[in-house]
Design brief:
heterodimer, A: mainly alpha, Sodium/glucose cotransporter, 20 helices, 77% helix, B: mainly alpha, 4 helices
Chain lengths: 513, 107
């Protein structure tokens, strides 16, 4: 038990609960609940976006990837930043100009509301729930190691807190929690990065030389190919990052919290600054972990592996740099990171159910405000209980597959449908449905038949589908079906949809007049 | 189908200019950045030796690491340039279009 970690963690929880109480008094309308009343400024939204995106997967997972593969991790480091360039240059302003609370608003702008919203709500849930589970299972394991709490207790703590934040504080509380967490994470990353560099007398070359001499694979870590050797895998990873980021419902939802397209653009610009900075630190942190953690008996388990697995390399490194006090700080920040990310995900899943499915599909766009808010709060509670239960059942499972499914679905269902609805005038409802469902089915089936599930989980000898990442094929399936079923759609509805493109296009360029 | 207002906007010279320039700017930036990423991916699969080679002969830092950081830096620089162009050119143009449409005048 690390007392510093525990007291810092309780301080964070205390502050976030105060924020939640404060936010709950200000959350009265739908716009307050889903979009913090469009009141967030560009800088804060940029921080909150960075807070949403820099998950435990980035901080601990990508550091672990640098720690075990070296240069191959750069593919992830660049991808995580370039996804934001796609959002800045193609998506952010248009999204803000066309939508209200969720990205489905944009897809349903001129296409037929009910079927299209149902599909994009399924897409949102298919991303949010596996991603949420991945974070919670990871959180349970992490907290078990950091705080010495039993796995179940840790999962229930995360679940209860995220449910409270979202149910009562809505987007306003979520935004503040993500903002605080982003600042804490940037501070922690900076201190670790500077700590590593100062131990190396600020000589980057010396850091690389030391890492090569400490790592069991030696010079191979400073060349690509330790992990990724075939072009299909590399393309699929790149696509998942670049287009999957722009299809994550909780990330897209953040653009509705600002007043206009100008602030939306400003928020991505800040977010790219923070994320790019953090990603560039990750490489240094990973190399530092190779140098100071790999052969340090203090961090090795009886079997010679790292205590808690390679995901803990960044946390162990923090102990080398700042002793128990700093280890406590970094542990608390890692926990805060998980809480902030699961809150954003829960909110986006709740919005998919209450705003997209209930208000627009079931009530035909004419839902009573209080009932809709009640539904979203009940959904939050249900999602909270459901994910806590599933996360306890999934203890010890490999969570990489869940995160992989989430990003692959975001890239092969949500992004293409949203992109085509914004940019292609002949995109029709039939095309959107065919493309969206084809992308979803392809992604799920290929993950099922691929090495992660078919071999690792089911125990067969050989995978039916040889690649770990389905993104390339699922995106092609989506775009191909969307194209074919749109251009062959000669219905009255399709003609009307094509005619209303210009009005949508004007609004996407200069905003509602 | 199109409202009178929308028809006016489509004919507005400033609007046509805005759309044309913005499309050109954002797509060329995007293609440039994604091109760098593709180049990195292709090099890492087919020419790993290029990325493993030190930047300077006899130096330590491999080219792949430098390229990675260079891509991060270019994403950041392009973001700054895009925001600048938007603030100095697109936003005033948008305001002008909206003002002229609201005034009911053709330009």
């Amino acid at each position: 038990m690390n007392m510093t970690a525990i007291s810092m963690f309780f301080l964070f929880v205390g502050i976030t609960l105060v924020i939640t109480v404060w936010a709950s008094k200000r959350t009265k309308t739908r716009s307050d609940f889903y979009a913090a009343g469009n009141s967030i400024g560009g800088l804060q939204n940029g921080l909150a976006i960075a807070g949403d995106f820099m998950s435990a997967a980035t901080f601990l997972g990508v550091t672990a990837l640098v720690y075990s593969t070296g240069m191959d991790a750069i593919l992830f480091i660049i991808g995580g930043t370039l996804g934001w360039a796609v959002i800045l240059l193609l998506v952010a302003e248009r999204l803000r100009n066309l939508g209200k609370y969720t990205f489905s608003d944009v897809v349903a702008f001129r296409l037929e509301r009910k079927p299209v919203r149902t599909m994009s709500a399924i897409g949102s849930l298919a991303v949010a729930i596996p991603y949420l589970l991945a974070q919670m299972v990871g959180a349970g394991a992490l907290i078990q190691i950091l705080f010495g709490l039993p796995y179940e207790v840790a999962v229930v703590m995360v679940g209860v807190l995220m449910t409270l934040y979202v149910m009562f504080g809505g987007m306003l509380a979520t935004t503040w929690i993500q903002t605080i967490k982003a600042v804490l994470l940037l501070i922690a990353g900076t201190i670790i990065g500077l700590g590593v560099m100062s131990m190396m007398s600020y000589d980057f070359g010396a850091l690389i030389t030391a890492a090569v001499s400490e790592h069991p694979k030696g010079a191979a870590i400073m060349a690509p190919g330790v992990m990724f050797t075939d072009i299909i895998t590399v393309i699929s990873i790149a696509l998942a990052f670049v287009f999957g980021t722009a299809g994550l419902p909780h990330v897209l939802m953040r653009f509705f919290t600002v007043p206009d397209a100008l602030q939306a653009r400003r928020s991505v610009a800040y977010a790219i600054g923070f994320i790019g900075y953090f990603q560039s630190l990750i490489f240094i942190i990973g190399l530092g972990a190779i140098v100071y953690v790999t052969n340090n008996p203090e961090f090795l388990a009886a079997d010679g592996g790292l205590i808690g697995g390679s995901n803990m390399s960044a946390v162990h490194l923090s102990k080398v740099i700042g002793g128990d006090l700093f280890l406590g700080f970094v542990s608390a920040v890692a926990f805060a990171t998980i809480l902030a990310v699961v809150s954003g995900l829960t909110l986006s899943a709740a919005a998919a159910v209450s705003h997209d499915l209930y208000a627009n599909v079931i009530c035909d766009g004419d839902a009573d405000r209080d009932t809709e808010l009640k539904i979203s709060r009940i959904t939050t509670l249900v999602i909270g209980l459901l994910t806590m239960g599933l996360a306890i059942l999934l203890e010890g499972e490999n969570v990489a597959v869940l995160a992989l499914i989430a990003l692959a679905i975001a890239a092969s269902v949500n992004f293409p449908v949203m992109f085509l609805s914004m940019y292609w005038s002949r995109f029709t409802t039939r095309g959107a449905l065919a493309g969206g469902y084809a992308g979803l089915a392809t992604a799920l089936i290929l993950v099922l038949l691929g090495p992660t599930v078919w071999v690792t989980l089911f125990g067969f000898d050989k995978p039916i589908f040889p690649y770990r990442y389905p993104t390339l094929f699922a995106m092609i399936a989506n775009l191909g079906c969307a194209y074919w079923f749109s251009i062959t759609d000669k219905s009255q509805r399709a003609i009307a949809e094509a005619e209303s493109y210009d009005a949508q296009w004007i609004q996407s360029e200069i905003g509602p007049i | 189908m199109l409202s009178q207002l929308d028809k006016e906007i489509l004919l507005n010279k400033d609007f046509q200019q805005l759309v044309k320039v913005r499309r050109r700017v954002s797509w060329s930036f995007l293609i440039f950045l994604l091109g760098l990423y593709v180049a990195f991916g292709v090099l890492s699969v087919y020419y790993p030796a290029v990325l493993a080679r030190p930047v300077f002969t006899g130096g330590i830092v491999p080219f792949g690491v430098l390229m990675g950081y260079a891509i991060l830096a270019s994403a950041f620089i392009i973001t700054l340039i895009y925001v600048r162009i938007s603030n100095n050119y697109f936003v005033p143009l948008e305001r002008k279009i909206i003002a002229s449409i609201k005034a009911g005048g053709q330009s």
